[in-house]
Amino acid sequence: MKAIPEIIVKQKEYFKSGKTKSVAFRISILKALKEELEANEQAVFNALKLDFKKSEFETYLSEYSMVMSQLNLVIKNLKKWAKPQRVSSSLLLFPAHSFIYKEPYGSVLIISPWNYPFILALEPLILAIAAGNTVVLKPSELTENTSRLISNLVKNVFPEGLATSIVGGVDVATALLNQRWDYIFFTGSVSVGKIIAQAAAKHLTPVTLELGGKSPCIIDDTVDLKLTAKRVVWGKFLNAGQTCIAPDYILVKKQIKADFTKALIEEIKQAYGNDIKASEDFPRIINEKNTQRLANMLNQETISFGGEIDKTTCYIAPTLLDNPDLDSPVMQEEIFGPILPILTFETEQDIESVISQYEKPLAFYVFSNNKAFSKGLIERFSFGGGVINDTLMHFGNDKLPFGGVGFSGMGNYHGKFGFDTFSHHKAIVNRKNWIDPPVRYAPYQGKLKWLKLFFKYFT
Ligand code: NAD
């Protein structure tokens, strides 16, 4: 691998050559990426299975198919998105035409995490390239197999001056952050997000931070218990709970807690069988360190289901915790694993007093057939995005921006929102010369009343 400064010089030269300004070129290279990914579908499945025993079904559903649908969407719409967008001009500008030009920033750095190692690396890469930037991608060091595969795929498709993927850990990330970038896109933890923001501030580099947090899931007593439990179990235990938008904890109406817990247990067994460890569909924790971190969360808690841990194989069973204290470790940090605390509420004030303990979450879920209840909660709290009567599904709609707020992140992406994230929006007014109303020019004497009339009637 070349030294990092050398790669950056190469990318800056590539950008300067103007090649990436051509939308036709961008489309052709994204089509080449699509072909490469199609040819490597099985390799993607294999890499994720090796990294954390993720099933082919889950890899297809939550990683591969989503990357392919982003690629298709971008290839189909890029010409339209990249065209200068005409907007109306105010009368004050008359006569004129106004436009928003979408301009690439230049050199983009993307740093991605391990939990969805394929999509969280490739989707930003696709959108940054679509917007005409060059990219250095640093996938996570914890998913060795997927990250190596990604680096090879990128190498097979892109000239190094346009995009390259560098596998490495904190040392490589730090070396990359010491360089000057035109945009930084980071997905990962809040603590590293702060390091990224500090590094970006040195050069006033714009940054998107896709972070995490404790995402609540509120369930009132109007719900269909079986359907709700099924959707919660799916959203929580997909990827063994290692999902940034997984429900972190449940807040259920007190009088249905026992029945709801029973329904959750039935759905867990329905999904993964009685011998969950032997299930082909339940992934492992990414490494021993995280297994130990999660195991510590179970100390001194009341376990209503699960709790089995095998540190040698990084297995933690889907686990339900009964009413942990808000001061306990499991309620102090983002869980990011297959542990689901079940807390209760009686009044909306109880909900408020739990949620207000935490920073603004990345996701928010409410299950209720009472429209006023769910609408009230959605409007009262600030969070990245959410779903009424399901979990995770907002991630799957590329017509919706995906991102956090406050400690759960800044900025957003997906589809056109992602193209816009990686584009500077340049405002252009094209004034016409055939008439030049004299009001704005000095001397101003006697003109103020005309100006006031203009603002009164035309703005
Ligand atoms: P992490 O922050 O530890 O690592 C993310 C990336 O940052 C990795 O590539 C890593 O090598 C790099 N990194 C680690 N330490 C660094 C440092 N000191 N300086 C520079 N770079 C450094 O996160 P993770 O453990 O890979 O992922 C888990 C976290 O990511 C969770 O908090 C989760 O909620 C969040 N997440 C958010 C989203 C989202 O879309 N908002 C998606 C997935 C994960």
TrEMBL record:
SUPFAM superfamilies: ALDH-like. Residues 7-427 form the Aldehyde dehydrogenase domain. Signal peptide: none annotated. GO terms for molecular function: aldehyde dehydrogenase (NAD+) activity. The keyword GTP-binding does not apply. InterPro entries: Ald_DH/histidinol_DH, Ald_DH_C, Ald_DH_CS_CYS, Ald_DH_CS_GLU, Ald_DH_N, Aldehyde_DH_dom, Aldehyde_DH_NAD(P). Pfam families: Aldedh. Gene3D superfamilies: Aldehyde Dehydrogenase, Chain A, domain 1, Aldehyde Dehydrogenase, Chain A, domain 2. GO terms for biological process: aldehyde metabolic process. Keywords: NAD, Oxidoreductase. One of its GO terms (cellular component) is cytoplasm. The active site is at residues 210, 244. Belongs to the aldehyde dehydrogenase family. This is Aldehyde dehydrogenase. It comes from Algibacter lectus.
